[in-house]
DNA sequence: CAGATCATGTAACCTGTTACATGATTTC
DNA sequence: GAAATCATGTAACAGGTTACATGATCTG
């Protein structure tokens, strides 16, 4: 249940609603984690029941009331404890590689179409990281003055960029190799 | 439902039992996909009901009967169709990066311990790919004579290696950066 | 006038993991 | 004597996605 800890993490910065948290996910950690509102809301409710959060209601006439969640000391302890737990290597699931694995039954041109498509996706993703995501992070650092934390935010972005660069290299190398195969 | 297509892929090579298929998963595609027997068995049953597979029972006295699954023409069509569908960029979930993102609240040495742990895991994984997995693939190519297919099997391994190299580089760079930070 | 933003949720579904059940044979 | 191999499964649970429901205000 990593979602819980991501929520605790953001709430350790400041009290927020579920809706606010979803925005933080979209703008800061989308490149390695995200969640839908339909998952966030019930999770916050459960975390409140567990004593990790408290909730204040801000009444609104025109919209549903804002439910502002605050982290408790117990929540802070649990977050800190989780952050210190050594993490296993992530397990990978890439259905695209299943396609590559069984691509022997396809014509060269069909495999190449797949690879060129992936290449384009990863090139676009890389640009998005280097521009949009990087800007979001920098804006956040300036808006909050959280310089030390910001260094860690940037490190996660660097990993995202490294991933995409790896994909792009592999796609390019693979396209060349396949072009060199004889299509018996 | 990529599991279905991975099963169809292996069964397009030759008829097999669920147990055999699990072994193929472990030895060939574990670095980007895997499944438990408890998921494979019911999936095969369902695929048979869908007409993608047929089943022969080989009676055994001492062990449960072997249920050997064969791919049907319909199964082959569905596999081929899926292989041609352009794939979206894989979505990533790396809980370790949540830890990095919120590492600002930790002491330098605690963050470094995490990173050194990850570094070691990825170094070990890389060696495993370069040795064990590569050997499995080569043995399979020799045992089956599937040279053209084998080229694609190797390409997926190359991607696994590229991933691990990326992780290792990032860990090393990150460890240096963090060592250079002042721990206020 | 359509679509995004704000703001909350519930319900059904899909995928995958863990635990449990059985049991003979082979290997260390 | 313990653990791995062969061979099948079921049941409960966890996590995440998609669809549905509501509704005002703001933006293009």
Word description of this protein:
The structure is a homodimer of 184-residue chains. Chain A is mostly helical. The first copy, chain A, folds into two domains: 2-84, Arc Repressor Mutant, subunit A; 95-180. In chain A, 69% of the residues lie in helices and 7% in strands. The first copy, chain A, contains seven helices and two strands; from the N terminus they run H-H-H-E-E-H-H-H-H. The first copy, chain A, has helices at 2-13, 18-29, 37-49, 73-84, 95-101, 108-144, 147-180, and strands at 53-58, 66-71. In chain A, strands 1-2 form a two-stranded antiparallel ribbon. In chain A, a hairpin with a 7-residue loop joins strand 1 (53-58) and strand 2. Chain A is elongated and about 65 Å long. Chain A starts with a helix and ends with a helix. Chains A and B meet through helix 1, helix 4, helix 5, helix 6 and helix 7 of A and helix 1, helix 4, helix 5, helix 6 and helix 7 of B. The structure holds a DNA duplex (28 and 28 nucleotides).
